[in-house]
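thread: overnight batch results

M.L. [08:02]
morning all. the overnight job finished for the chain we discussed friday. pasting input first so we're all looking at the same thing
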Amino acid sequence: MQTKDFYYDLPQELIAQDPLEDRSGSRLMVLDKHTGNYEHTTFRNILSYLRKGDCLVLNDTKVIPARLYGTREATGGKVEILLLKRREHDIWETLVKPGKKAKPGTALLFGGGILKGTVLETVEEGNRLIQFSYDGIFEEILDQIGQMPLPPYITHKLKDKNRYQTVYAAREGSAAAPTAGLHFTKELLQQAEDRGITIAKVTLHVGLGTFRPVKVEDVEKHHMHSEYYQVTEEAASIINQTKQAGGRIICVGTTSCRTVESASDDQGIVHAGNGNTNIFIYPGYRFKVLDGLITNFHLPESTLLMLVSALAGKDAIMDAYQEAVNKRYRFFSFGDAMFIN
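M.L. [08:03]
and the structure it wrote out:
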């Protein structure tokens, strides 16, 4: 299976640069994974495609203001870092620009010195481990001086940083939002529960791997980066009971999908726990838990496009994506949605 098999031509102007004023006002393509047929509607109508007894699985991770601009203490030279993953309490794995200037022992200053970092070592992919020191609470300092780490294809400045958070975001730790969830409002989720649709919340802290391109020709040789996940006893129980009762597990976003598939055994039973997952889902994968997926439209040749192709079939997905281009759908993080059922 070749990476180029997942290429499609996307006009630049279809990449959404700003969120819609109404979260649920985006367009929605509904794709039948059995027939390949699709129809067009708006996201606020999503509940008409769900049934009593279904379970929505949400990723309740919260994006932190993970982009920091500062200087090197010794020279005053500018530096930009992106917090990727907390290794220990004050030690983070980071992406540093310019990396050549961030050798072990380099001291960095942020926010005029209210946050100080010391480069400890270089790790996988050239990332740096940085130990931070500060007075006060780290998260409050981040809120004060950090910026939301929007994807590189979004060039507009975000007016309201809460629009790059889901309305149910709770557990801080992501460098990117689980964007399929951006379409939901609190009212829509309440309506779902009122209709007998259960909600299970899991956590997967989204890392930089979300944006990392597949650089190998052979899909199976691609190396996925690991991301931290957690499934509570409550969430596992809700999902397992839904399956036992004949309901469908509808994951909101590829991160929720990867979480439940990582946390399940070969019989499709989801187990509570936490850890790191580098699960790579591409055509040929047999889903153990997931029945349907609410997702956005993904980058050409990306691991996320490969995941949805595993669920609905590559040909059906590529046909649907061409239809989305023809119908002028909005693509990527702030774009429109697809429901694969």
